[in-house]
Write a sequence for this structure.
């Protein structure tokens, strides 16, 4: 049997710009799905995000490989594109079976009820895919249970409207097939270092997931909706075994928040140190987790933790309450202080509200200057498709709430004129780029990369400033 797995390209120019220039991670979700494929079957991954002419590359691969099954993953912003790809594939090879999974398929499977899509997988695809293959080989119906649906079945609508199915046992999720992609292509911009000189700030970077889900329920986040409150954790031994096999020296933890269980993370760090595994890590953590367990982060600093992404979101109590972050301004400030003292680079993420006025933007600009040196990024508050918040705002959207759900485009009306809103947005990034750790800490790195960074930074700031052109300018 021949299986082709497709990573769609980002449909919006700004998203592609970010991926090409600042952060391009491997398609771990498809590597995990591929890990379930029996050795007697042929499986390939095609990452269309690298292709200049993605539909041509897709057609060429289809005609060359002639797969029996084509599987797609996709975020909500890629839902329209996934349907286009599935339709395109059917026209090239009418007999193929199109299977769609990913976040959007899990949250709003009804959107994929088209003639070109045969099976919709909700939830974890790695465990479901092996059963789909077994059924295909036996000539059985491919749909089964509450998580693998056929749009043609009479009970499809009822099952699609139900809550996402429970995730399987974490030990049953396959290990990723990392050999199926060109690993030299995946990187992140690396500004975290205690060294004064770096060989590169674009190191090859591997990703790893050690847990699934999050016990918190921030109002803007879809994770608790997908996982139905589940929080699944791999054992420390299993995590360290996988890390030891990674060839890359830089590792990106893609857990939603992998420091929630401090005892587990302590064991992982100790095992890494005991086994002499020397790598550099980037991870997400909540500010209250950092404040509660500074000793854990001190230990992880010894193990190689270099950069921590912290969703500060806001530095006012009112905003934090609105987002249901269950943290405080004081906690955010203490977390920042702890990371600075430990020598771990902070990546602070702030969320802009479309309702921001001049005063709110001015206050945020001041806060950004106060926390640097740090990596700082910004997103626009956007309801996640399929959540209660999304339903609440369904009549308020000023742009397609799927395609433009990239957290850079506002999909809700702004209080300021849209042009002024994006002037402030770009100004914030201008401040962040000028106050990044590489510059303030005077880190030396290759001159050619310095030119690249300056060019990319300026281009990104200007792209944000012109984003208002994609909207109708209000009079």
């Amino acid at each position: 049997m021949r299986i082709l797995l497709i990573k769609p390209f980002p449909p919006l120019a700004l998203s592609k710009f970010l991926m090409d220039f600042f952060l391009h991670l491997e398609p771990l979700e498809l590597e995990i799905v591929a890990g379930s494929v029996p050795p007697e079957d042929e499986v390939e991954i095609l990452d269309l995000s690298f292709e200049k002419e993605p539909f041509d590359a897709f057609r060429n691969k289809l005609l060359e490989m002639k797969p029996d099954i084509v599987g797609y993953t996709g975020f909500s912003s890629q839902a329209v594109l996934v349907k286009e790809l599935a339709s395109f594939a059917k026209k090239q090879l009418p007999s193929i079976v199109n299977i769609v999974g990913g976040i959007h398929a899990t949250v709003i499977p009804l959107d994929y009820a088209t003639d070109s899509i045969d099976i919709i997988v909700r939830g974890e695809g790695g465990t479901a895919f092996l059963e789909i293959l077994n059924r295909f080989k036996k000539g059985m119906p491919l749909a089964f249970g509450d998580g693998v649906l056929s749009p043609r079945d009479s009970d499809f609508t009822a099952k699609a409207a139900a809550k996402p199915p429970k995730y399987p046992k974490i030990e049953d999720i396959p290990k990723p097939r990392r050999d199926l992609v060109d690993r030299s292509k995946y990187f992140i911009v690396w500004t975290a270092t205690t060294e004064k000189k770096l060989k590169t700030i674009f190191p090859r970077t591997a990703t790893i997931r050690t847990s699934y889900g999050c016990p918190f329920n921030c109002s803007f986040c879809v994770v608790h909706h997908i996982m139905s409150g589940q929080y699944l954790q791999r054992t420390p031994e299993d995590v360290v075994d996988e890390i030891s096999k990674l060839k890359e020296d830089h590792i990106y933890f893609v857990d939603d928040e992998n420091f929630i269980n401090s005892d587990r993370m302590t064991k992982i760090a100790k095992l890494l140190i005991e086994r002499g595994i020397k790598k550099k890590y980037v991870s997400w953590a909540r500010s209250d987790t950092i404040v509660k367990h500074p000793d854990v982060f001190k230990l992880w600093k010894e193990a190689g933790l270099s950069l921590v992404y912290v969703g500060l979101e806001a530095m006012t109590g009112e905003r934090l309450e609105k987002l249901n972050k269950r943290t405080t301004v004081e906690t955010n400030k203490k977390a920042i202080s702890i990371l600075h003292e430990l020598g771990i680079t902070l990546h602070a993420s702030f969320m802009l509200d479309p309702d921001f006025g001049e005063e709110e933007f001015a206050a945020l600009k001041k806060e950004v200057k106060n926390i640097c040196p740090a990596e700082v990024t910004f997103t626009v508050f956007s309801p996640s498709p399929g959540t209660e918040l999304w339903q609440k705002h369904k009549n308020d959207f000023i742009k397609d709430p799927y395609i433009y759900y990239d957290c850079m485009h506002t999909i809700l009306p702004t209080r300021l004129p849209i042009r002024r809103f994006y002037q402030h947005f770009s100004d914030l990034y201008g401040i962040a780029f000028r106050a990044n750790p590489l510059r303030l800490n005077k880190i030396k790195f290759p001159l050619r990369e310095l030119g690249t960074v300056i060019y990319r930074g300026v281009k990104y700031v200007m792209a944000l400033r012109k984003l208002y052109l994609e909207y109708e300018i209000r009079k």
About this structure: The chain has a mean pLDDT of 92. Residues 146 and 159 are 6 Å apart (CA to CA). The first strand starts at residue 2 and ends at 7. Residues 447-465 form the longest helix (19 residues).
